[in-house]
Design a protein that fits this description.
Aldehyde Oxidoreductase, domain 3, Aldehyde Oxidoreductase, domain 4, five-stranded mixed sheet, binds dioxothiomolybdenum(VI) ion
């Protein structure tokens, strides 16, 4: 047994509990499936209240302009209009922002992109509110527009905010790149670009704000209700005790229903407080496309050196993230790109400079992958281009350089404390896809339809990392009949959090999942668990649920031990029963024990608080241990390219992920299927376009091409389960890993099939055709 394998084995022993797992690891059906398929689940737009008004938003006509005057008088007089409000009517703070306070609830003296809101109207119905918008007169002084981030970086570029257009600078210095390039036999330099991506969630944002005395409740499609509470309270100038957020069911979020959805909640709340009546605001698809933040377009320049044997000697990286009009989470998105900038490879000498830049385009923020999809596309394309140059198989080149246990990352972190499984994952992906044989076979093809097979892999920091604070709370209550309530601030965003966190609680108590009810996210009841982002729901939320459940279980155990006069640890919970491990006569149904505890005044409710291990990162030096653990991921894509038309068909994606222990194989596979669809869209069809004057082109889903069901390939999913010592029952992360290496695998497969290299996403048919034509000439 190799040192590596024995490490895997020891960790496994550490993590396997005394009894076999009964609920965790089982494909239990989603606990909200029935609600959703029968239509009883309520989404944001499904909330109705008596005497409810409807709100609408007036947006700017120019992407960059001074606002000289706003005249709302005509709109106010329009029959059926109840209120017309602008920035001056915001009772609390009009300014907010995740990192920089550069966003506004409503525009003040300036607009910076076409999504900026100038006024909000409430009326007796939606149509009246829409008509009233047309009666608001705004005088602008248009300002010069900059949409290209490289242009925006120049000294004389139009200034979008007073503090200048470059608002994030990251760097990494490891070793000596000059020396590293001298040691190289081969050096290549490439530039890669990615596009704006819309989240493409099916449900447009919807909120209803309901005032009651000096308090207000906002129902809506919030990805993170506790963030929404912060923004609504701030905008109203009220303490959090006056604001309650109730999360509706979400029709998708993917990172997209934070920030701007919270602003929508704040706007509805401002109108509702003003009127003393409920106000509903539901976005149209066009509003979603124009206003909502997108995934950052990146420009990435890589220079890489390697010996002729394929050992990487140096990497020099320059990248620019287009932040659009506001900072939002850009510094945090870039943090992940920076940490993961070399991919999962041991590179002795690294120099990286990254910049986040304002432009007059939609602002960019969290979108599934959070800075990884861009960087992975560049690094994984680069590795294939280098492999070709060296005449080494792409899998081989990756295996030569992939991290091993104890490798040091560019930030100086020694990878330990979890199983560094990138090689394991790569080998598994190669094995299930029959990589070696197909790679060989597809090299000798003629005819118009050519097949190709491509590979990409990644390492990904788990949870927020040094972006922190990284914590989660939970409350677990056992009821008098043995039912169990779980409350967690981790929100159900469609990913299956309700089910997975309920499984964790059921596992602790050794009962079927049917005993558990998951409390819907309500900020008065559910503890703050940090945002439901960064693929942290299971590891962080599950960690907190496990702690809370174990506290309650301990008291039930003590009660039973006393009853039977045996040591506490001898009391076992399994399969709905509680019994004495040494004497089968001492046995009681879990529900009966719960009832006995209840009648004997044993506290059956407790909270759990899970805090991520201590980590740190210094943005000045680029050094530190930015994440406490990492996941390892590899995708192989098989494609067919028609070299006459440029059409690409993805035939098969083989996805392999080490996400630690899989809590629910069904929801986990669901994450991967969805991730593949999104990654394919990123690779081939999706592109949010803004013209050079700052006006959006792709204003609806007819122009923004999501992957269709009939375009989905065969997807084979394999999990490499190295339980993580930090996670509940060894669980780590999966939501974002599932999508972040799909695009480079597809692009590398296209390169293999058609011998052309797409360096800017998406690889639309026309682009491929143009490259094929160029190759022929
Ligand atoms: Mo996310 S993109 O971390 O919601």
């Amino acid at each position: 047994m190799s040192e590596y394998e024995s490490l895997v084995e020891t960790r496994k022993e550490e993590l396997v509990t005394k009894k076999e797992l009964e609920v965790v690891g089982k494909p239990v059906p989603r606990i909200d499936a029935i609600d959703k398929v029968t239509g009883t689940a309520r989404y944001g737009a499904d909330y109705y209240f008596p005497n409810m008004a409807y709100g609408k938003v007036l947006r700017t006509q120019y992407p960059h302009a001074k606002i000289l005057k706003i005249d709302t008088s005509k709109a106010e007089q329009y029959p059926g209009v109840l209120a017309v409000l602008t920035a001056k009517d915001v009772p609390g703070s009009n300014r907010f922002g995740v990192v920089f306070k550069d966003e506004r609830i409503l525009a003040e003296d300036k607009v910076r992109y076409m999504g900026d809101a100038i006024a909000i109207v409430a009326a007796v119905d939606e149509k009246t509110a829409e008509e009233a918008l047309k009666l608001i007169k705004v005088e602008y002084e248009p300002l010069p527009v900059v949409t290209d981030p490289l242009e925006a970086m120049k000294e004389d570029a139009p200034k979008i905010h007073e503090h200048g257009n470059v608002f994030v600078r990251h760097k990494i210095r490891k070793g000596d790149v000059e020396k590293g390039f001298k040691e190289a036999d081969v050096i290549i330099e490439r530039e890669y670009k990615t596009q704006f991506i819309d989240h493409g969630y099916l449900e447009p944002d919807a909120v209803v704000a309901v005032p009651s005395g000096d308090k207000i409740t906002v129902y809506g499609s919030f990805q993170h209700p506790h963030n929404a509470r912060r923004i609504v309270a701030l905008a109203l100038g009220k303490p959090m005790s006056k604001v309650r957020i109730v999360q509706a069911n979400l029709g998708g979020a993917f990172g997209g229903k934070d920030d701007t959805t919270n602003v929508l909640g704040a706007r509805a709340a401002i109108l509702a407080v003003k009127l003393g009546m409920p106000v509903k605001m539901v976005y149209s698809r066009e509003e979603v496309m124009i206003e909502r933040y997108k995934r950052h377009p990146y420009i990435m320049r890589y220079k890489v050196g390697a010996t002729k044997e394929g050992k990487l000697t140096a990497m020099e990286i320059f990248y620019v993230a287009n932040g659009g009009a506001y900072a939002s989470t850009t510094p945090l998105v870039m943090f992940r790109s920076t940490v993961q900038c070399t991919g999962p490879y041991d590179v002795p000498n690294v120099k990286m400079d990254g910049y986040g830049v304002y432009t007059n385009t939609p602002f960019t923020g969290a979108m599934r992958g959070f800075g990884a999809p861009q960087i992975n596309f560049a690094v994984e394309s680069l590795m294939d281009e280098l492999a070709e140059k060296l005449g080494i198989d792409p899998l081989e080149l990756r295996l030569i350089n992939a991290y091993t246990q104890g490798s040091t990352t560019p930030t100086g972190q020694v990878l330990d404390g979890h199983v560094v499984s990138i090689r394991q994952v790569l080998k598994k992906a190669a094995e299930i896809s029959d990589w070696v044989k197909k790679r060989e076979e597809y090299n000798k093809q003629s005819g118009d339809i050519r097949r190709g097979i491509g590979l990409a892999c990644s390492f990904r920091g788990v949870s927020l990392g040094a972006e922190g604070p990284d914590f989660a709370g939970a409350i677990v209550t056992v009821m008098e009949d043995g039912s169990i309530a779980v409350a967690s601030g981790i929100a159900e965003n469609g990913q299956g959090a309700r089910t997975v966190l309920s499984q964790v609680a059921a596992e602790v108590f050794g009962v079927p999942i049917e005993y558990v009810i998951f409390a819907d996210n309500d900020t008065v009841i559910t503890p703050d668990s940090g945002p439901t982002v960064a693929s942290r729901g299971t590891i962080m939320g599950g960690g907190a649920v496990k702690i809370a459940a174990e506290k309650v279980k301990r008291r039930m155990q003590e009660f039973a031990a006393k009853m039977w006069d045996i040591p506490t640890d001898q009391v076992v919970f399994s399969k709905g029963k509680v019994f004495d491990a040494n004497d089968p006569k001492n046995s009681i149904d879990f529900r009966e024990l719960a009832n006995l505890c209840y009648r004997n005044k044993v506290s059956l409710s407790d909270s759990g608080w899970f805090v991520a291990p201590e980590i740190h990162w210094d943005p000045e030096t680029g050094e530190g241990n930015p994440y406490f653990s990492y996941t390892y991921n590899a995708d192989v894509a098989e494609v067919e390219v028609n070299i006459k038309t440029g059409a690409v068909k993805v035939l098969h994606v083989y996805a392999v992920h080490d996400c630690g222990r899989v809590v629910n194989p069904n929801t986990a596979k669901g994450q991967v299927y969805g991730g593949v669809a999104m990654g394919m869209g990123y690779a081939l069809t999706e592109e949010y376009l803004v013209d050079e004057n700052g006006y959006p082109i792709t204003t609806n889903l007819d122009k923004y091409r999501l992957i269709r069901a009939n375009e989905m390939p065969e997807v084979t999913v394999e999990f490499v389960e190295n339980p993580d010592p930090n996670g509940p029952f060894g669980a780590k992360s999966l939501g974002e890993p599932a999508t972040e290496v799909v695009a480079p695998a597809v692009i590398n497969a296209i390169a293999h099939a058609a011998k052309i290299r797409v360096r800017d996403l998406p690889a639309k048919r026309e682009k491929i055709l143009a490259l094929l034509k160029k190759k022929e000439e």
